[in-house]
Give the backbone structure.
Amino acid sequence: MTAGDLDGVVAVAAVAFPDHPEGRACFAERLALAPETCFVLQGGEGVAGYLIAYPWPLGSIPPLDTLLGSLPADRAAWYLHDLALLPEARGTGQAAAGLALLFARIGGSIALVSVNESAAFWRSHGFVETELASLSSYGPHARYMVRGVTKAG
């Protein structure tokens, strides 16, 4: 992902997460804080999907649509902020390819909040549900999920 991709990322996010809008500044900041774990999927018309992850304390979630300022001192785990694809890119294996790229780049645990009833997808990639009290802003089907990974190679 580059700064030139951000308008496309915002457009994909608006389609994928209409109930959880985030401003362009949030995406720009996440890219600036962890560029090595921000990816885009290029489609025929531009950005067709993206993945954003960054170091974050396990058992905690960053607030939605809020600038972080900096990464926290506790960087033992990663937070998978978003994995989003436009409808035409879904079901093509691109989500799994993006996750494989992320898993190859980082070691340690990865946490995420599953929304849009996607917990089964995340379970199929090794994530397990873990209790976290503060998910109300994500909707009734939100689940905090964690996966332990080992860096490849």
The radius of gyration is 14 Å. Strands lie at 38-43, 46-55, 77-85, 108-114, 128-129, 143-149.
